[in-house]
Amino acid sequence: MSTPLAPVLSSLPKLGVTAVVDILVVAFLIYQLILVVKGTRAAQVLAGIGVLLLVYLASIWLGLDLVRSILATVVPYTAIALLVLFQSEIRRALARIGRRHWFGLRSPLVRRESTDEIIWALGLLSQRRFGALIVLERDMGLRTFIESGQMLDAALSRDLLLSIFQPGGPLHDGAVIIQGDRVAAAACFLPLSTNPALTGSLGSRHRAAIGITEESDALAIVVSEETGRISVAAFGQIELDLTPDQVAQRIAQHFGGKRERGETSSVAVSEQAGLAPEEAAVRRSERT
Fold first, then answer.
1. What residues have CB less than 8 Å from 152, skipping those under 6 apart?
2. What are 208-263's pLDDT values in tens digits?
3. CA 153, CA 146: separation in Å to the nearest integer?
């Protein structure tokens, strides 16, 4: 028994393997686009373009020739306008796709000694309320941002980090970028995030931490100069008010490692025992 929809259904192409793959690829690209524009100004721009499209269709249906001709004149320049407006979002989308580990390749785990040096420095910076911004490079190179600051290429140590972020010092402002076990540069300029959903009540250091993680797969650590609280940013998101041990866990997770449950950093142990980090270090050395 035929139905009114039978001619329409018979005219549709058969759903084969190629068609399924085609649909999945388009769905993946649309999903990536939604992730990129979600919560940004690009979403409002796309909404505006959608409104213009509806007006154009309405002008055709209602016979508004003047409106239709004006919009038809503007359409050829839309592609160029989109490239200009969405250049940062397009770059971010391509970076998001490129930084996925398609073949199971992972960045090397940051050495435990390097993590401990960073955590020790963060504990002291937090106690003294010294503002700091530390960026850990992962797979995507940060050469552009490294060249914007003072090149160091020095061995990573807590003393070096403390001296860099000493208030009033020549390298205090800006970010420190760490490559592996080396401090590549200090006083580096980072892009500030413009995401209105994240930056409403955050200062410039936190916005810079979010901005660099939007542009790359780096991990950014911030110490607030006002409160001494430690925050960690990754992939355009930020976690506020973390403990040193939580920061160590975030570093291990971000670089493919895993801290065992109950394993804490030396700074976290000293805080739990009510000791200053220097005193805890002396006691630990005495035990060993």
1. 183, 184, 185, 186
2. 999 898 888 889 999 998 889 999 999 888 899 899 889 999 998 888 755 444 44
3. 10
Indicate the Cα dihedral angle 101, 104, 107, 110, nearest 10°: 130
Q: SS3 of 185, please?
A: strand
37/97 Cα distance (integer angstroms)? 15
The conformation of residue 13, written as its DSSP 8-state character, comes to: P
Question: Can you spell out the DSSP letters for 78-136?
Answer: HHHHHHHHTHHHHHHHHHHHHTS-TTS--PPPPPHHHHHHHHHHHHHHHHHT--EEEEE
Q: Tell me the domains of the chain and their CATH numbers.
A: 14-98 (no CATH), 112-287 (3.40.1700.10)
Packing angle of the helix pair 17-37, 87-98 (nearest 10 deg): 120
Phi, psi of 222 (to 5 degrees): -125, 135
Residue-wise pLDDT for 72-81, tens only, equals 787 777 777 7
